[in-house]
Amino acid sequence: MTIQTEFNEALHWLNSRTTFGIKPGLERMNFMLEKLGHPERRLKAVHVAGTNGKGSTVSFMRHILQEAGYVVGTFTSPYIESFNERISVDGVPISDEDFVELVKRIKPIVETCEATEYGAPTEFEVLTVIALEYFARVAVPYISLIETGLGGRLDSTNVITPLVTVITNIGQDHMNILGNTVEEITIEKAGIIKSGFPVVTAVEQPEAEQIIADIAKSKNSKLYRLGKEFKSIDTTLHNGNEVFTFKSPFKGLESLEITMKGEHQVKNAATALMAIEYLKQYFSFVIDEEHIRNGLLKTTWKGRFEKVSDKPLTFIDGAHNPEGIDTLCNAIKRYYPNKKVHLIFSALKDKRLEEMIGKLDTIADKITFTQFEFNRCAEADVLFELSSSVNKHVIEDWEEAIESEKQKIGESEEEVLIITGSLYFISEVRKLECR
């Protein structure tokens, strides 16, 4: 049997566990990790939660740490190009061979767990165990950056004790699981705060900030808040890049530059920098100013206002909830205020579609609704009916929708094409656009 066949079989087995749905709780995780000898206890880690911005913040941290010579593991979701990239070291995805061997090691433990009172582990729980075992005993990075899957308090990743906890922001997403209000969602996200370990946060709502402050105080955890204990100020545009000054209790840095587009990325960069500064001050990480500047400048994150074509000028962006749509609209206004905006949109049916489309209607000169092959994808006709745009269209075949818009725009320098919506959709689009 070839390794490709073995990998496909292992991945099929893992994906088949989606039938067990989402099961908040850590009982199955603790059972499996105990059988493996608690690999999570071997890790130096940073734990990152938040509604939006987790991936970008992790990427900023990874690039800075790599510039300083550290080997960095990352556990992120979802993937954009290949499944393996969810578990990576220094940006290199786990190999098919290592994935297969880890599945062989973990599968019997999963089956044993199924027979207990805890029941069958979910796909994400098993994937989390694979990542922790990979980082602890196979790749052994110096530090691992672990992103939550959903929420925080009962998320599968909440078995680690991190050096630093990061909460990027709070938005109203996954409300059917996390709660109906900002307060309820914040309590879930803040559930990753561990006693005595610091918290870095970029939350903006006063009610969310207060909840995080109260929980941090109750756990004797030092709190660093964007806009208070640390800041990003004097943000300007220079040659298409964002330039800003960073200030923290430990250090101030002027004229920092990032290529990631949008003022929200400045906030993500500042949040990453605060966590980096804490690692320097309290855990003896050797990171020089040169490493910080170079790392920030080199940071990219696939599918986040990512340019995929110059003619016509085309961007893809995984704006999959109202907060993501807001940052996309702000970026379009900031970078292309005088261009005619063509939008192609597809999303999952369990999102706040009416609110999201209402925001897009305000920025788009033309909006085309489409759909892609995914069991939770909203039908293009449904999206169309939610729009109040006077220039709205439906093309069910997403490849046809993109080709049609590109032909109409041609080489016009007065127009820009933005393809946005579900990250699953953006993953499919990127395969087409970047091949």
Show the helix and strand layout.
Elements: H1 3-15, H2 27-35, E1 45-49, H3 54-67, E2 72-75, E3 87-89, E4 92-93, H4 96-114, H5 123-138, E5 143-147, E6 164-167, H6 175-178, H7 182-189, E7 199-201, H8 206-218, E8 223-225, E9 231-238, E10 241-247, E11 252-258, H9 263-283, H10 289-298, E12 306-310, E13 313-317, H11 322-335, E14 340-346, H12 353-363, E15 366-371, H13 380-386, E16 392-397, H14 398-409, E17 415-421, H15 423-433
Parallel strand pairs: 1-5, 1-6, 2-5, 6-7, 7-8, 13-17, 14-15, 14-17, 15-16
Antiparallel strand pairs: 2-3, 3-4, 9-10, 10-11, 12-13
Helix pairs in contact: 1-4, 2-4, 3-9, 3-10, 4-5, 7-8, 11-12
Shape: globular
Q: Which strand order spans the largest sheet, edge to edge or round the barrel?
A: 4-3-2-5-1-6-7-8
CATH topology of the largest domain: UDP-N-acetylmuramoyl-L-alanine:D-glutamate ligase
Structural class designation: alpha/beta
Mean pLDDT: 94
- For the termini, the CA-CA separation is 29 Å
